[in-house]
Amino acid sequence: MKNSIGIDISKAHLDVHHLGTGRTAHFSNAPAGFRALTRFIGTQQPDLVVYEATGPYHARFERAFSGRLPLVKVNPLQARRFAQACGTRTKTDAVDARVLAQMGHALELAADAPASEKHHALKELQVARTALAKEKPGSKTA
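Given the sequence above, the corresponding structure tokens read:
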């Protein structure tokens, strides 16, 4: 079995499920929580760390662990459909974390290439530009 970890990311928290051990945990989506997550993972590097793209909420997590862990960002709709296909109807953060770990294992997902610091900076600028364009009176750009 692949050593997969699923992480459900929200604005304030990370819900984590380690597929290999069945262990679960709940951490803050902040630097202190990232340090606690690092301790939870321990010295044995996981094969995959699967998480959903969650708008602005996954950015801090992605920036903190890109290049340090084998991250796999998945589309939330695909994760929901996978859960439904597995017969999982319940939708809680802990269940979502477990489903993400199972998805990484079952579909044999591959880790994404680590994003560079320039990529993160450009993405932040793009988000800021889009927000400003939406505020502009009479603007039709999105």
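The two ends are 43 Å apart (CA to CA). Try to locate this feature in the token string yourself.
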